[in-house]
Amino acid sequence: MRVPSEIIPKTETRENRIKRLQMRSMRRGIKEMDILLMAYAKANLEGMSDAQLDLFDRLLMNNDQDLYQWVTGQVAPPPFLAELVAGISQTFQK
For residue 21, which of 1, 11, 7, 10 has the smallest C-alpha distance? Predict the structure, then answer.
């Protein structure tokens, strides 16, 4: 599933996109999510395809309370985010 094109600046380079996603990962609101998402972003964003970056961008549009419950296994994430959330959870468990 792709992020709506109006959200991603048309002139954004891949390098700038990764930097933007890294910043959004560490400036969340809930410190726990800052730590979890920052670690995942640092370890994975560079190697992601454009489609995977789209999905991560879409994940970051969700509120921290939902993200935290998904990552900690308290609530199942939406099916299209399940694999990504599992990857984030595994980063935290390492």
Answer: 7
pLDDT tens-place string over residues 24-49: 999 888 898 999 999 999 999 999 99
DSSP 42-67: HHHGGG--HHHHHHHHHHHTS-HHHH
Total number of domains in the chain: 1
pLDDT digits (tens, 9 = 90+) for 46-75: 999 999 999 999 999 999 999 999 999 999
Calpha distance 5→94 (Å, rounded): 34
**pTM of the shown model:** 0.85
75 inside domain: yes
Does the residue 9 lie in any domain?
no
Whichever domain contains 27, its CATH number is 1.10.150.250
